[in-house]
Amino acid sequence: MEELYRRHRSAVLSYARTCCRDPHTAEDLVSEAFARTLQAVRSGGGPEAAWRPYLLTVVRRVAAEWAGTARRTELSADFEHWLGNLPDSPEAESSEERILRLEEDSLVIRAFRSLPERWQAVLWHTAVEEEPASKVGDLLGMGASGVGSLASRAREGLREAYLAVHVESALVSEECRRYSSLLGAAVRRSGRRPNKDLERHLAQCPHCAHALSELTDLNERLGSALPTCVLLWGSSAYVAARMAEAGASAAGAAMAPGTLGGVSPNGGTGWWPPAADSPLRSGALAGGVVTTLAVALLILPMPFDDDGTESSPSQAAPAVTDVEHPPPVTITATPSQQTPSGQAVPAVHASGTASGKPAKPSPTGVDLGTVTWSGTLRNRGITTKCVEPAGTAIVQNTCDGSKDQVWQTVWSKNSKDYIWLRNAATGECIDYGAATYHSAAIDKDVIEVGMCPCRTEGEGQRFSFALWWVENDGSYLVRAPRGDGKPWQEMVLGMLDWREGADPPPETNAPLVLTYNYYNSTRLRYFVEGR
Questions:
Q1: I need a surface site. Which of 138, 267, 325, 347 has the fewest CB within 10 A?
Q2: What is d(CA 526, CA 531) in angstroms, rounded to the nearest whole number?
Q3: Using an 8 Å Cβ cutoff, are 205 and 211 in contact?
């Protein structure tokens, strides 16, 4: 147990902080999680190899249990809000019972737990924690050379296990079972011409359509999809904290502890600045460091393009005040005018029926590809607001049917499945390629977005649309591409004022940014309306 505590305490504490109001409570939660795990092992249960995901699950369950006791006052307000918004059942349930039901209803959780524990462990530590093969090999008692092949077998095993639990689900019909093998083939052979019979079935069966979406996420974005499904709560904050911790360790030889290139975020006392009444106090946000590379980028006074040249600042978007968490901060959109092409990464097609018409060139004469959809982006949380440009900024204003609020998704075979979001009135695209990253200063992790001439290589301008299936409300997350070394990976387009129940945003020009999908806020999703 001493060795297990040494190996896993830091990670478990990072997750416990997302559930608690203060560090002392988080420490109590960690101790309780280890104690219960030890008790489970002594009773003949508990994990044998996959300790990390097991311990994190125990943390969430214990926190949910505390929500029904006097200790609920020690839990973070965000965690309580998440618990309170879990789907209800016909029968009265405690928070703990609702959590267990949610776990049982998740096909990904059931598939993951059905795997051999060594497979669970190698998937978690390689894909989620992104630990080197030598370290993962030490955890599993094997050589570093064998970690890659084990991880590959585990990934294939997870796909097969998911299809198995999907077929066993009471929600699927005999017709669904006949198409289950085609789902696996569609994921493995992405990019090839789809099976017409399967397409017809998916159009009529939401369960199989959801299964294909989850399988695609597991196949292409395992590092973000797996913690989201297994942890249920706080996955983005946990992963960001772990990456920041890894970056801090790697940068330790070059920087003094608690500083960012000589700039101390909290007076030199550590990496995480605990602002008053901030989610940072409970670890709900990682600090300003995402990767070691990002450390150097975040402290620059001006954004730089990928070729190392300094980019010119453009007009500032309106200043925004977070009423709950001052001080006000001005978000300045400074998109890059030219960014070299990066590596192509997989994504999901935008919603809508492809028109097959070539896209009209932007004012710069750029021919991007094919228009696949044209319509409005209406906010799910504030349904009267639609996305539109305001000079160089991207904002939300009252939906009025104007051309300014009409967007086009443009697809090109050279960009695989990612699309540009181009405004029908200005002909420019939403851009985030060289914008400034903001973190604890405004109590959120955000990256600026702005309007910019469209670029054919699309780096810093492409998005994907992910259907939000939890409430089945027809809304979408608008995601930036994932990729190694990208400070915006796993972020979505959404309102700067994303907090549910917060004071309403300004009547005009409520700004949009890239940020993490915090607590599944409805203000970070959109209805995609058009054709």
A1: 267
A2: 15
A3: no
pLDDT tens figures, 486-507: 666 668 999 988 877 656 777 7
Torsion sign, CA atoms 96, 99, 105, 106: negative
163-171 long-range contacts, CB within 8 A, separation 24+: 163/211, 163/215, 164/111, 164/114, 165/107, 165/110, 165/111, 165/114, 166/107, 166/207, 166/208, 166/211, 169/107, 169/207, 171/207
pLDDT, tens digit (0-9, with 9 covering 90-100), for 228-261: 999 999 988 898 888 887 766 655 433 333 322 2
Question: Rounded distance, CA 122 to CA 221, Å?
Answer: 16
Average pLDDT value for residue range 394-410: 93
CA 269 remoteness from chain centre: 29
Asked whether residue 75 carries a pLDDT value surpassing 90, the answer given is yes
Q: For residues 218 and 225, is the Cβ–Cβ distance under 8 A?
A: yes
Which residues are CB-contacts of 252 (< 8 A; sequence separation ≥ 6)?
Answer: none
Three-class SS state of 375: strand
Distance from C-alpha of 87 to C-alpha of 471, rounded to nearest angstrom: 8
pLDDT at 405 over 80: yes
Helix residue spans in 69-126 (DSSP H): 77-84, 95-105, 107-114, 117-123
Name the nearest CA neighbour of 266 among 278, 277, 274. 274
Question: pLDDT digit string (tens) for 436-478?
Answer: 777 644 456 788 899 999 988 888 898 988 887 665 678 888 9
Beta-bridged to residue 310, according to DSSP, are: 304
Structure token digits, residue 232: 């249920």
Distance CA 349, CA 412 (A): 11
Please answer whether residues 501 and 385 qualify as being in contact, where contact means their C-beta atoms are separated by less than 8 angstroms. Answer: no
Cα distance between residue 29 and residue 32, in whole Å? 5
Rg of the Cα trace of the chain?
23
Measured CA to CA, the distance from residue 320 to residue 330 in angstroms comes to 6
Which residues are 447's β-sheet partners?
437, 514
Please give the Cα distance from 373 to 481 (Å, whole number): 19
Mean pLDDT of all residues belonging to the chain: 74
442 against 185, higher pLDDT: 185
Closest of 434, 430, 432 to residue 306, by C-alpha: 434
Whether omega before 453 lies within 30 degrees of 0, making that bond cis, reads no
CB under 8 Å to 409, separation ≥6 — which residues?
350, 352, 371, 372, 373, 374, 419, 420, 421, 422, 465
DSSP per-residue string spanning 202-216: HHH-HHHHHHHHHHH
Residue closest to 513 by CA, chosen among 496, 530, 527: 496
